[in-house]
Amino acid sequence: MSESSSFIEGLPKAELHLHIEGTLEPDLKFELAARNGLDLPYASVDEMRDAYRFDDLPSFLSVYYEGMSVLRQEPDFYDLATAYFRKAWSQNVVYAEVFFDPQAHTSRGIPFETVITGLRRAQEDAEASLGVRSKLIMCFLRDLSAESAMETLEQSLRYGDWIVGVGLDSDEHGNPPLKFKEVFARARREGFRLTMHCDVDQQDSVAHIWQCLDEIRVERIDHGVNALEDKALVAEIKRRGLGLTVCPISNSYVTDGLKAEELRTMLVEGVRATVNSDDPAYFPGYMNENLRAVQRAAALTPNQIVQLTKNAFEISWPRRRGTRPLPRPARGVRGAGLMRSRRLYYSRRIESKGASLKARLLLLAALGAALVTLPTVALGSTARATANSQSFPDSIGEDPNAPDITSIDVSNDDAGNITFKVNISNRPTFTSDMVMLMFLNTDENSATGDPQSLGADYALQLIPGSVGLFQWNGTDYVAAPSQTSLTFSYDSTGATIHVSDSDLGRTKGFSFVTLIFSGVTTDASGNPDFTNAHTDTAPDPGHGAYTYSVLTKLILKQTAFTTTPNPAKAGKRFTASLAATESDTNGPVANATIKCAAIVGGKRLPATHSLANGVTSCFFKLPKTAKGKTLRGTISITVQGTTLTKSFAVKVH
Could you say which of 549, 584, 616 is where a domain stops? Predict the structure, then answer.
């Protein structure tokens, strides 16, 4: 196996464009046909595979829908999905968003409930047994009527918690996105995320993508490679932070090639493109095969492969939109999503020590509860890239009028200087109507901080032209006594804030949540007015808080060294004592691995040791024959892989 193949296989992956009916492998198709008493027009698996001859989308779809005829019972859909999840697990796919086509089954007399309960049961078992998490995206068939799509949407509502979004697939010719505008508007109101297929090299491809953006207001585009034909369209896709789910191997079957160079161009242009397998039973190739194919065809670097994978996690949909009406918050403040009125003071400018934070903001209802960290791999990026950096993804497009946080990168150096990079896709400048707040629980104890905001011990506030650090004093936030390390900058990619762990109470780890507002104005009294404000939060409501560990290179510092008795005496006990502190706590060493060694007259002496109050002591019994000789030895302490050694040499009397 080549080095690049091994690299691809080892990457944790998210797949966002996968039709579950398109994973029906011939072996399983024969098994299900036998279970349901059906005859297939093929004598063998090989003969069936030989019939998979496609040269365009319609020719593929005719075989695709014919294959579904064996799916009749709930166990059939369970087995279908389970087979995919096992294959995904074997290729290190840890999260998948799975398309399903209910109309293709209900039109055959298969109840909607039969389809979705089988898929749901497979999802639950895959997460429990394999650790593969997944969400369902319900697709409407665009070659059927909008009325049929609306009927299917209404059928789905009782299973709304099982479905994260809706999409549009099947034959695009003569079936533009606008045909389903009302259906998708209803779906948005019901809280579903929105995507649509814009298949490759179809008639009016570019115009259809524009319709998806301007009329349907999708959050992702499936396929969408033809967007590269319109520079203005590419710019708009980038401005909105939309993702494209590209399927290279399937491209090669229904159009002219993998579109690997186009995929590479998207990466260079900064478009959030991803690689997916589409219908891998028909276009032979699952995730690893697709990634290897584009890597070879476009000579993608390892960093570009990683970016494709990272994009998938960043544009994933771990949850539906929040749709419940909001209670009216105090003082005309308006929130978003599942927020409810929580009050937190903040200042419009950095003030003197003891100053209060002065206006009132909303905070997530979830923040007052116990901290809940995001899943480590389902949303991607929470696995460490290096020993002291971590990337936290956030879903996009919740409020198109709000600044849109796409991810937050947190890192620290060995001195404990922490950097927050808040990536914001749609605000190249920090305008006068914007405010950003970050709440940090720095002792991981929600009982000691602000009970209304995550148990936060500190709040970082960014307003145009300045940044401030505020500390919870038990009743209010006041300017932190030390914030000398605090700096910020803002560029076209978002905000960067630097602060030291010492200014955050020498924290070694924290939970945090970030809110960013736009549309903030000032009332007649000079106080901020949030009546028309728009908000984005990271992580999303219901997803608790991000957690980060501050990892620094531990330094052990000697503060004292003594030997007793002085001078050393033959036949007596000799003690060497080393006092030291740890850089991460600035306190005495509390626990360590201790090594004591001493030689006198060419003989090694046995030793015992102790550690108390930061002082490590080694005890040796000197033989009577040591008189007049030199005792040479070392005392070593090791803490978290860092070792401090002190040597000594004394004349024995």
Answer: 549
